[in-house]
């Protein structure tokens, strides 16, 4: 039996100012399903966006668990590094 879809609310500034959704990530049966729009002229902007997401995720862990923001960020960084080692570099 599948679980009901739980969608996040639109951030308040988007409700006021509009915008373009560039990324949607959903966990389905333990795997991540992603939809994205290229959106930026320079791919480096994706790097800045991903770092911002990592910082916000670390903050959420710090607020909702006993883990510090720094510890959560390091765990996120370790996960990124482990995945890049498992899948190989793009170079």
Automatic annotation (TrEMBL):
InterPro entries: DUF5076 (IPR031796). This is DUF5076 domain-containing protein. It comes from Methylobacterium hispanicum.
């Amino acid at each position: 039996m599948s679980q009901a879809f739980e969608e996040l609310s639109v951030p308040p500034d988007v409700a006021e100012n509009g915008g373009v959704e560039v990324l949607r990530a959903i966990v389905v049966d333990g795997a991540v399903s992603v939809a994205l729009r290229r959106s930026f002229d320079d791919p480096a902007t994706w790097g800045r966006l991903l770092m911002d997401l990592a910082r916000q995720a670390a903050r959420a862990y710090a607020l909702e668990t006993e883990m510090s923001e720094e510890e959560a960020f390091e765990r996120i960084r370790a996960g990124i590094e482990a995945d890049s080692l498992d899948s190989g570099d793009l170079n």
